[in-house]
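Morning run. Coffee first, then this:
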Amino acid sequence: MRCRPTTALPGVGGADTNGAAHTGVEQHGEHPMPTTEDSGTRGTAEFTGTRTGTGALSRLRTLLDLLDRGAPVEAFQDPELSDPDADSDVDAAVVADATRVALRIRRTLGQHRRREVELAALFDTAGDLARLREPDAVLKAIVHRAKLLLGTDVTYLSLNDEEAGDTYMRVTDGSVSAAFQQVRLGMGEGLGGLVAETARPYSTGDYRDDRRFRHTTTIDTAVTEEGLRAILGVPLRLGTRVIGVLYAADRTARTFTPDEVALLSSLADHAAIAIDGARLLDETRTALVELNAASRTIEAHNEAMRRAEDAHDRLTDLVLRGGDVTDVATAIGTVLQGGTLVHDAEGAELARAGTDPRPPSAEAVTASRTGGRAVFVHGTWVCAVLAGQELLGSIALTGRADLDDADRRLFERASLVTALLLLLRRSVAETEDRIRGELLGDLLTRAADPAGLSARARRLGVDLGRPHAVFVLHSTAVPRARLLAAAARIAQARKGLAGPHREDVVLVCAAEAPGAGPGPGPGPAAAGLAGELRQALAAPVTVGAAGPVSGPAEFADAYAEARRCRTALCALGREGTGAALHDLGFLGVLLGDQTDLGGYVRQTLGPVLAYDTKRGTDLTHTLRAYFDAGASRSRAAEALHVHVNTVVQRLERIGSLLGTDWQRPERALELQLALRIHQVNGHDAPDPGDFAA
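And here it is:
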């Protein structure tokens, strides 16, 4: 059988000196306990005013010994204390009255001891709750300590939901029903809802039969499933605000005493303070976490601002110092810790830093141009470089997949600086191209004084006193503006001139400029230039060349010759190649204004003539006889008065000197023409050192 504490705490529940408690708790079928009449006054008067016998004194001493030992109630009811053979009726009355007083004293002492135990338990509970920091741990400790102090089957705690306007089960101890552990009570519903609504304690000896409470199907089902009968609920209060309800319940019907109500109420007061403290501590923790997060955010923002200011200062300094696009690419790569590429609107690379070359993504450039923001495509950040609605190019950032908002804005700011530099560059280039174009036009038309042209050229870094080659460029697959831009880049790199003239694009550069290629004339340079332009523009470009020329007065004639060469290349079906007139054989001789017959002979027959001169042979005469005989070896042998095998050997030697294609009709025609010119001009013999044997 479970022992239940029945003591009220001092100052809680209004316990008087006789142990009666006034709690104001409504009990079903109970009334406040009557106050016991203090009959000890009368008995004491009789005892002190009456002479007692020796037996009575002995019994009184026994009562004192029982009180001293803390004997049970049964010991005070020993028949020997009320022996009918006592000395007198007076002695018997005195002993009986003293026994009643002793029992009352014993009860009072027991109440004090229980109060001390309960107070110690409450203090221990307060200490335990004060040490807890987590709200869930506090709530579990409260219901568990309530179960230990009151010795009930189940204890549980509900908290008020101010938004929903009800109270819900939060923690239980001893519960076995899942439905009971999740029940919610509307304000005023059931015993708990009434406590939460009125802020007053309520108890019932048997909830199922107690009509004072508003029963609902949900609550009654949960209580029945848990098997609860007797329930006590006290409010958890913070000032005048009720935050929840603390319950103690048994699965058998019984009545809760005022002392139990007072004890649970005292625990509820401690619990409310602990809950609020834990809540405040949890809110403080949350505030600290949020504060730390905000601090980190501020630090990150400050770092981003610092980096943005640093980048702004760098880019501004670059612009003020006259930096170029390469400087911008290097600076952005350093700040954003990635590789950078800058392309123009045509996709040509303008600058690169810290990464491998790669073409721009047309898809990414279009998306950035449409959205006005940098976009991430195929592992690369791309931002269109715009001047209003005009696309000037693009800037790409590699090696940074985790670009945050601050760095993204910094990257986009770099595109603005790049746009500014490209506009400045274009403005300067347009001005310089206009000046260079005017100078080129005056050179090609002899429209100005030669001395003045030389001075203007020197101001542009061009020395007209050095030998220069003139190239005329033509392409049907590339817009003229693109071809002109490509020629301008080459002219700038080689300190030459480029510009439009009539319907042509003309390039003038030093004959010995890097990339001009080997060879005594502009022909190889024209062939190399055609290949370079094909690679840059991804389309065939025909290049006619002339020169080299020295002095402003010679450029007009060189242009006319280069233009005829370009026309001849196109007429011969050699679009996309480059050559000079003398590279076209006798056709070049016919088209030339100043025919160099000796040069044509040397170019066509040079190896054979040099061989004859060096070795004293006459392969030239054998070749002429072979052609005169209609390319017949036997008739040539008859004309030369030698054996046909000798002719065959001589022709094989000629083939090794002139190349295996020397008998092709076109080549054979050129050889016959050179042989006739050589014969007419008196057999001009070349210097053997001019040709390889």
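Residues 258-320 form the longest helix (63 residues). Good start to the day.
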